[in-house]
Amino acid sequence: MREVNENVSAGADQRATGEAIERGGVGLTVSDLLAKVTGSAPPAESAPATQDADELAAAIAAVAGRYVPAGHLSPDADFFDAGGTSVSAVELVSALQDELGVSLDLDEVFADARPVALAKGQPHLRATATAVPEVAGPVETRPTVVAARPDSAPSAAVPERADPVATWTTPQSAVATWTTPPPAVATWTTPPPAVATLTDSAPSTAAPERADPLAARPTRRPAVQTGPRSAAPSTALPETAAPVAPRPVPAPAAAVRPHNPPSAPTARPEDLTQILADLALADRLPFTASPDPVPPRRVLLTGATGFLGSHMLLDLLRHSDAHVHCLVRAADEEAATARLGEALKKYGLPWSSEVRRRVTMLPGDIRRPRLGLSDDLWNTLAHELDSIVGVAAAVDFLRGYQSLRTSNVLGALTLAELAATGRPKPLHHISSIAVFNEVGILSMGEDDPLAHIDRLVAGYDQTKWAAEVALRRARDHGLVVTALRPGGIGGHTRTGAYNAQDLSSGLISAFGRFRTVPAFRYLNAAPVDWVSRVAVAVVCEPDAWGFDYNLTGVPNTLDDVVGDMAFGGMHVRVHDWDEWRVDALARLAADPIPELAFLSRVLQSPTALKLCEATLKGPAATADRTTALVEALGLPPATRYDARAQLKTFERLAGDGLARLPQKDDQPYLWFSENTEGSVSPVAAGPGGTNPGGAISDEAISDEAISDGPIPDGASPDGASPGAATPGTPCPMSMSLTLSIASMHQLVTERRVDVRGEVICPALHPEPLTVARGDIWIRPEEGIPHRHGLRHQLLRCRLELTDPEGGRWWLEGHKYARARRDIWRQTRALTVRLGREGEPARLAGEVVVPADSYVRDQIDGIKVDPRLTSQEKRAAKLTWLAWFGLEMGRGLLGPFARAAADLLDLRRPQTPTEHHR
Amino acid sequence: MIFRTTNPRTARPALRKVRTTTTLRPLRHRLDPARVEEIPFRTSDGVRLGLTRVDPGDRAPAHDRPAVLLLHGHTASADMFLLPETRNLVDALLDEGHEPWLLDWRGSCRLPYNETGGRYTYDDVALYDIPEAVAHIRTRIGDRSLFVVAHCIGSLTLSLSMTAGLVPGLAGVVSQGVFLTPKLAGRTSLRMTLAGELLKSRIDHIPVDFRKVGLRSKYTPLFALASRKATCPDPTCQILHNSAWGTGASLFVHEHLTDATHDRLADLLGPAPLWILPHLRRIELARTVVRWHDTDHRYRALPQNALDAAARIDTPVLLLAGSENGLWLDSQRLCRDVLARRQPQLDVTYTEIPGYGHLDTFLGRGAALDVFGHILDFLEERR
What pTM was computed for the model? Predict the structure, then answer.
């Protein structure tokens, strides 16, 4: 769902103009604040330092501009919003180091990727760098900052925090009024005091600011955990400062930090500040009446080019009569149409005139005031639409709150503003189960309390939390808001379309590749088709509006997943999460897979790891209201997202290079040997001649020509081909082959078995011929006879052979089922033809598996991958025998069934008398 | 016992014995009646069929207006392309400037033959109905291109006509559900055979409308069997969706039908004759379309085995199938594979509609979005 933006830096100018527009005379509206908050606020004080920072910000922006699609980036625009990718962020960091001498940690870039924010960190680093000149890398630099902080908080450090303070100016007074008596309300306002401290103290004492985010990770945890309980901080300032102060010794801090980077269980205070400021924006929404309880006719859908959004677009069209307006980021309508079409096709969804006639494009941007629409269009929409569905969100587990909030929080508030303006409309907001994504949360029910915001670390989790909480506040303005919270959204059960950016795609691929899974409790995931269908049902059902729904389906337990993968022939071993992570990272480093690069970045990012950990260790989400709704509306009930449902997705993942299906060269899953003996005789060129490569139409061996009954060894299958008018002397031939399968998946989808081994045929070559490539297809083409008749195909064998001189030969063999009593022989006799590559058949004949070796080799002699446990081996062997036996049985039955039907048809047609007519 | 139940007192008057001519049930549509032209059409073996032309008006210039012949499935009728309650295929074709022609071949439920035992086999359809309708249309459209969109048995018999060379020069064929290689589930095949053999001396067709046969009838056990494990209480829906005329297959994905279509199922699909089963069984067991009449030389124009004669196909073919087709399973994919191997020169493409069953590819409320786009794109490319 993460979208690439083309013109954010251009949008910055429009924000400034947007800021100038006064609307309604009732103070600031959401869009005004949006404009203010998104970075165009004037820098506060301390001119020289600010100037310095501004210059640096401009320099950083100039460098960063090279890595975004637009080619330039304004200092207050977010690098990722402008289209920068995780890969280009890595490049940017090294470029900044090389060209500007600016040392940045990659995590800092992800946390807040505006050049102004990046520049703010720099004077500090420089100052400390002079103090401690030896330290080069950012990792070593940080402890010194921590150490330096308590005493080295001079005025020079102050302005760095100016920006959040500035953005706070408007809401601050409101906040301040209720945070001024902190001791009284300390039990529940612990985060606000911290905030208040920051804002109040910034100009005067200015102690924490730049060092704070760094210090926050190791130090703030005790503060927050003890905070609510101790409940009587005289002021918040000593409270936050205290844990830092007793630890001025640089060495231990330096020793601890690099080894324990993910131990940051709390949010950064400036993020909390920002979150509270954003929540306050909801208070500016207009009051509104209730919408008419009728199914929608005109729907605004955002995020239609994303994974869930595109599926919801089609479901909206299918299951309602609505016309859908799609807000798509593009320069004009034509580009928007092209972009939507591309997205739908990418996800295997139809894109035709029938779809286009019910969709209207709105080129715009969720991150801009009034969605980047003209005032006329905005007003028209406000009065015409009767439903708003907000799916658009920036989904990136690496980026921080500052970087994601414009899309995920302010965008949601803009939609709320549109919903509350003009005709009352319900707003259906796609939230996420991430709002519960706190390590150690006890339950995730639809009406359970959300996570503690100060314990959400990943920016994505924070933005989804903030958006949902802000919209809860909007409910108090009369707005009907539905929060739909999907968990993991798995690939489509029918098309296999998946979300390449989604973590679960990467994890599933890694599970299959490495054959290991981390120990998790539950995976709250549901396939996209079900999530989309239920979400659309909520949108179309007025009685369902205004509630919270968990669209998490039936959670998968660890045992379920392990069992599923074993069912698919992929026996996995369970590892501890940390062990798994280290192991997976090592494997990804040793054998880099470009398609999985994002996974290794996630596994290395401390914040994203927290998110993973919370996800994997979280409880099962419950969804009582959703279940009741699904039942009431007669929708398909949620089922576990099991192996069968994931199959298509897995195939598609494998096709795109993320996952990997077992292949021919791997250690086979199961194998056994097959020895055949028989004879061949020369084929005269002529009608029996064949082109070896292709069509079967040359299959000249007619039904009747095949001799009946067992052929004595060494005897010629007489008249094997009409072409063999003058058969030469029959020549013995034998094959000793090894048949193997790489996975059961190969059997079920391709019905194919791999063949290796050698063929001894003195008539072709005195030495044995080696099988260069060989395949056997069981019951090819459903057994449809080559020619009209009762001779059904039972098995087809195609071998490419090489002789010791390098000559290349082909062998084509078939087993046939016929309505005759020699069934046992039909299963063993292979009619073969051989020839030189590119030439017609030279020899034809029949080879048979000797009856005594059949059971010995092909049932008792089955070998299974030694890495499996003995239980798994037995299961594998039985599965193969059952599958093969059933297929052969069906194949053999075919001709008999036809013969029997012919007998039945001999009866005289009866003429029933139906009296009532 | 119940099989022998006959009650002459409740028997309805045998209307067909009074009438001397066959009348077609009127079409149900929401088109302008002036634009729907019913053509009296009788095949050379004397069977009255229905042929309907829908005038596209001035949506496309008359000279550049490809004709599209729509062939329904057995026991369905041209109504299946004209559903008034949803966006139907005729609407979509008209909007794209095509001229739809609808043939009610002798298996249509608008005609009485299925029910009253005017016996026929699929050979008759392939030899008379389709080629003669095509010839008739050609006399009207001149040298404009003619496409065929065919469903189920309509498509299966069309494949027999095509491989016999009786409908040369089509601009393209869209086949839904099944084409040259019919494949039924083993269970369906077995039940079809068993039920056919057990019932054929007692009844000659399986009705779908419970209201027309009543509770006290010899068909009641069939409806009772069809209701096993059914989720929908409607007996018509049960015998179609849950049982496909007693064979145990499923004809459509229940959720895809609108309520209006669901309530009209008995109009859209009629009774299935049992006497067609031997031919159907022969075709299904051979996994290819085969001729029934081996000794009747009137049918010698038809190939003994359509797949062997597939080289005669002279037009691009689009094979469509729902991924959840409960009746013909993955016959279309099989057909694509077999033709790609045996007749690689043919222009055959296969498109799977994810999540769709058999009938809902035309009757479903989302069919316009999910299915018709593929058809229209195919027609547009070869216009």
Answer: 0.81
